[in-house]
Amino acid sequence: MFKPSIHLLNKDIREKNFKNILSLVTFFLFLPALGIIFWLFIKGYPALSWDFLTQDPINGMTAGGIFPTIIGTFWLVIISVLVSCPMGVLAALYLSEYAKDGKLTRIIRLAILNLAGVPSIVHALFGLGAFVLFMNMGTSILAASFTLAVMNLPVIITSTLESLKAVPHSYREASWNVGASRLQTIRYIVLPNSYPGILTGVVFAVGRSAGETAAILFTGVAFYLPFLPSTVFDQCMALSMHLFTISTQVVGVPEAYPFATALVLILLILSVNSIAVGLRTYFRVKRKW
Amino acid sequence: MELKATETAVPKAMEWRHRKSTKPKSERIIEFIIKAGGLSSIVLIIAILIFILKESAPFLIKRFDFSEFFLSTEWNPASVVEIKYGILALLVGTLLVTIISMLIAVPLGLACAFYISEFCSPQLREVYKILIEFLAAIPSVVWGFIAIMMINPLIIHTFDVPIGLNILNASIILALMSLPLIVSVGEDALRAVPETYREAAEGMGATKWEVATRVLLPAAKNGLMAAALLGVGRALGETMAVLMATGHSIQIPESIFEPGRTLTATIAAELGESPKGGEHYQALFAIGLVLFVLSFIVNLSADYLIRGRKK
Amino acid sequence: MKKKIEIKNLKVSYGSKVVIKDLSLDIYQNEVIAIIGPANSGKSSLLRCLNRMTDFNNEVKVEGSVLLDGQNIYEEEDSTFLRRRVGMVSPLPVGLPMTIQENVTYAPRMAGCKNKAELDFILEDCLKKAALWDEVKDRLHTLATKLSGGQQQRLTIARALSHHPEVLCLDEFSIAIDPVTTMKIESVLHELKKDMTIVMVTNVINQAKRLGDRTAMMLNGEILDLDENSKLFNGQTKDSRTKDYIEGLFG
To answer: Given a cut of 90, is residue A35 above it in pLDDT?
Structure first.
């Protein structure tokens, strides 16, 4: 009979321990992810109601609802995506369809990388200097949205680039081979086969900008406004900023109130991300090749 | 027009065959726009630098004193007695929370990456990936809120200290925030190691543990280091969560249970109160410049490591 | 005989690697010229120079000149017009991710043809020529990417014929097709010879023998031998390596 030596047995045990420890570590790291949403839900649920979503904050933001902040976040996100999406797609198209492997391309890539790494508060400083002051937009929805757009640009470029690269090169060659120009190839081959990925990336960017606080801090978002914005040159409130305000700056807020606000913010972002995940899965199934 | 498909001769009607397509003007314009769009990120990164320099220029020229700025711990921009612009305490605060958070996040994150890329079943991997995406999507202000409401009492209870908003709290929050990035970049690095390496090692009777430490670790070294560096970049630049979690006091903390303050949080907290164009305001932009340079260095190093791996 | 293409002192390099060195070759109107030779001898690169697909690769450097009807194609501004005159069938089947009908009418549509009757004519005509019509005539509106490899290869040929090129370049077109279909297409090529000039790269020596009027033997970016098939395949080679290759002694 074959008997495993002690040495081998030890090895076996160590092997098992190794795997178990890793799986435990991973499990306990992701436990908080679920724990947090559960905990926010428990604490915030009592304050959550239709009125909470549709009414203005009252009594120095210690009561009432969060309606204007939702509207404000909506404005900021929509405008920022309208700006950053075309710019990001153009930049990605250039990199994937036109750029040669030279110094310029290298520099563009580094610029994108660094743009993605710039701290959000530095983006806020830039927005303040460039949009609010230099371009004379004042602290406004427009200035804040532009700042968000600059922040989102590298995210959209990177995700778009990935989708463009996923279209097999042989399709491009086949199209060029029969006399289609570069632009025609982009229009009829590349974009129709990559827009699902581009769209998914954009939706993720929407989720990201909905939660951003630092970048909009000095560029267009007010702590409190008694009225809703009527043009893009007005200031607005924002959900993320509101959470910051009532959890650190305002005294006498009932405990459930900031919890409910955080819950709304998380659920909003979560649903946007679920849309993105859903789109991704849907298009993966429907893929044409 | 009736054309019979059986004819092999080219019908005369196909005049498009002989048409030389001079590039229409619209096509030229669109291609120009695409090329201009390609430069947008360069323009923006330079614009960010220029505008921050522009706003901080008067301070840098008139008031800036290297030893005061970098070596003094006194940041008293609104003092009536003596105005001081020393960012040492803030710099130390930033470095402390970054380093401690990375001490927590890097080993754990890489362990996760190992587990997910090497041991996980495909279904479980999908679940974890969704969780990673979910964690990454939680905005920093919510993390800050969690720091105040959850970690704060937790620290007070566990360690029996008077305040829970301190360096430790901020580090824990930052660690949680950087984890998704470290795990996903680390996992990419591990999966980039060719399957043949694993097979060869396992074929020679190596255990998973040996494969991990002797084969994967060396092969994915650069990518894993880049993952850690990207985590550093994330922690360095984080604003809202740190603002809410550090307890906001300008001093060099003597232990991790003391409050502190970071560069980012200082800007976020004070810019709203400082009069536009004043010295204080300009000094805050100078801090922004320091942050910009720091993040630039970290990102370039990360890119260098990743590129090194690809070669 | 009229010279359709004149290649003069062509030199092609990818970075520092030279793939074609100082190659000159005349191709006559309405002939079928076959190019044979072992892998990596520059056959495909030569074809790619004929319709300037090299434009799309940043690393490629092309020197020398290629004249089409006496005009240097590298001085021509409109390369898309050139590519409609010089059709290309790549070795690997590529069905574009659109319907079969859209695939075949793609080139005319990109060239600005909007006439429905004309497009329908081209569709049926080209699919018939590529020996694919009977198999797909009932499902012209299904995705081309769902076709089998052999069917996609014939679709690629149909697409290359759709813009009625004056020169048709075939790069190992039979690699993914069964012998029966190959024979069908070969007979079509025989027919097409009346209308166009055919340049054919092939690894199948018998195919060169069957189809070609003349055959060129390439090795390491040079043409070793070029002669009429009746001579080349009857032992009258200038270079002994050609004979060895034809007889299967190397390659």
So the answer is: no
Is the CB of A211 inside 8 Å of chain B's CB atoms? yes
> Closest partner residue to A90 among B37, B236, B299, by Cβ?
B37
Say which CATH number the domain at A226 has: 1.10.3720.10
**Measured between beta carbons, which residues in chain A are less than 8 angstroms from residue C160?**
177-178
pLDDT band at residue B2 under the 50/70/90 scheme? very low
pLDDT at A190 over 80: yes
CA dist C80 and C67 (Å) reads: 16
CA distance B171 to A185: 50
pTM: 0.88
Contacts of B100 (CB under 8 A, 6+ apart): B167, B168, B171, B256
Say if residue B3's pLDDT is above 60.
Answer: no
Q: Please tell me the distance from the alpha carbon of residue B88 to that of residue C83, in angstroms, as a whole number.
A: 66
In the prediction, which pLDDT does B140 show? 93
Whether the predicted pLDDT of B7 surpasses 50: no
Cα–Cα distance measured from residue C232 to residue C36, given in angstroms and rounded to the nearest whole number: 12
Looking at residue A231, its pLDDT comes to 85
Check residue B311 and give its pLDDT. Answer: 47
Confidence of residue B8 (pLDDT cuts 50, 70, 90): very low
B6 part of a folded domain: no
Say whether C64 sits in a helix, a strand or coil.
strand
Please list every residue in chain B whose beta carbon sits closer than 8 Å to the beta carbon of residue C73. Answer: none
Nearest neighbour of A25 by CB, restricted to B35, B111, B237: B111
Within-domain flag for A28: no
Arithmetic mean of pLDDT over chain B? 86
Q: What is the pLDDT of residue A3?
A: 53
Residue A226 belongs to some domain of the structure: yes
Residue of chain B whose Cα is closest to the Cα of A220: B272
Domain ranges for chain C = 29-57+84-246
Which chains form contacts with chain C, at 3 or more CB pairs under 8 Å? A, B
What does the alpha-carbon distance between residue B213 and residue B193 come to, in Å, rounded to a whole number? Answer: 13
Mean pLDDT by 10 residues, chain C (251 residues): 89 90 91 90 90 86 90 85 89 89 92 88 91 90 88 90 91 84 85 89 88 90 88 83 83 60
**Beta-bridge mates of residue C99:** C143
Kindly state whether residue B276 falls inside one of the protein's structural domains. Answer: no
* Nearest C-alpha neighbor of C76 from the set C89, C65, C88, C60: C65
* CATH number for domain C29-57+84-246, candidates 3.90.1150.10, 3.40.640.10, 3.40.50.960, 3.40.50.300: 3.40.50.300
